[in-house]
Amino acid sequence: MKKLISSLLFMLLSVFSFAANNPGAPGTGGSPEEPPAPIDSNALILLGAAVILIVAYAMYKRINAKRLA
After folding, report:
1. 25, 45, 58, 60: most buried, per Cβ within 10 A?
2. What pTM value is reported for the model?
3. 47: closest CA among 27, 23, 19, 25?
4. pLDDT digits 0-9 by tens, 3-43
5. What is the CA radius of gyration of the chain?
């Protein structure tokens, strides 16, 4: 379970490199004259999901620590 949650968090956070859809955004190889892309709604959804998974993982560890004590 622990490896599953950590791999899901890694996948969610690695998706942020593909979240920019404007070719002028920094790091995407576009022309430097174009302004950086604003944050996409998909990136906000992924960020929210990552936060929820991190909180769930912290609660899971806390419950297991109480159970083992």
Report:
1. 25
2. 0.46
3. 19
4. 777 777 777 666 665 555 555 555 555 556 666 666 677 77
5. 17
